[in-house]
Records
---
Amino acid sequence: MKALLKQICTPILKPFENGTGEFDYKPSHRKVLLFLGILCLVIAAISVYVALLTGQVAGIIPVILFGVTGLVCEVVGLLGSDRAVARIWKRH
């Protein structure tokens, strides 16, 4: 199942997993990345609620920004290699 998800998410993972050389990775980096992803997705959900409540079309901007950021963080945090997590933090 994880291999299938990795294959589906290849366009997101590929920019973070390529490269050579050493990188600085700690398990806490992955935990913080997952927490950041959840936080961004919660903010996106709140933005959807507020945008629907007020009827403002401009409310889609934070939904897109926080939603995409949260999605990328979760995909890299859950499916990415140690190198991908280090690259997202620029620790290579």
---
Amino acid sequence: MNKSIVITSIFEPTEAVKAFSQLKGYDLIIIGDKKSPIKWDCKNTTYLSIDEQLKLNFQLVELLPFNHYSRKMLGYLIAIKNKSDFIIDTDDDNIPKGNWNFPSFNKEFDCITEDNGFVNIYQLFTEQKIWPRGLPLNLINTNYNFNELISQKECKVGVWQGLADEDPDVDAIYRLTLDVPCYFNDRRPIVLSKGTMCPFNTQNTIIIKELFPLLYLPTYVTFRFTDILRGLIAQPIMWLYGYQLGFTNATVIQKRNPHDYKKDFISEIPMYENCDEIIEIVSNVISAENNISDNLLLAYKALLNKSIVTKNELITLEAWLGDLKNLC
């Protein structure tokens, strides 16, 4: 099985990048940007500068803005062109631990029952008060009785989200009010059933080939919303085809790059305003009779009607889907 790790970076090779480059059996693809060093070099790595990106024969090349996280999609397309069976999303500040890996995709796992709405999956891995970025704010003080919701079931996982120790993925409200490092407890992987959801991000995540269209990163929403929106749209589409989202132990340590928490908060406002209705909006317009790409397009059209995304998003999405079709 071919596995690709995709990262975007504007720095010299970081500790995390160097560590990922030393892993056996993975193709590491680094997408640079205008702020990236001119001379970037790391062994066992495919690095694409802006000049090299502009030579790619993808529709997206001409549409993606510079100095933007969405340029990572060019790395996904390269991985797909190289016949990857799995694509792993991570960042240049997530250092893999010695146990870095992901569980099987088809196996019996602890599974949370159907139709519980949003859950705070962090509560299964720590007693600390903490919640994932994208959890609706009205739920951050909710204590879930997971003991009554979990049973062992045969699962069909399409996406695994690995957690991150030290500075995990949380929202600006957490960082502005608590900002306490977190080291998660080890436990067995946990899988969510249809109708039970949790935000997932691009920090330590693997997705199977059949779901590659869902890798699309919204380009015209705010930076702190883009990967969360992607994950919220993905989950109801995954359910149509029997796929589930799973979470596993913290297998990276995040040494977070500098952030301005106030700016992060402002960037997250659309996420706070819309995250709890996106699942319903998407679920109402998709159908198992359609393929994944068509459902993704229907989802974004519905979000456009609700003014959650703009018309430019549809243009970029159609280019992404066109590039995927040309690679098939």
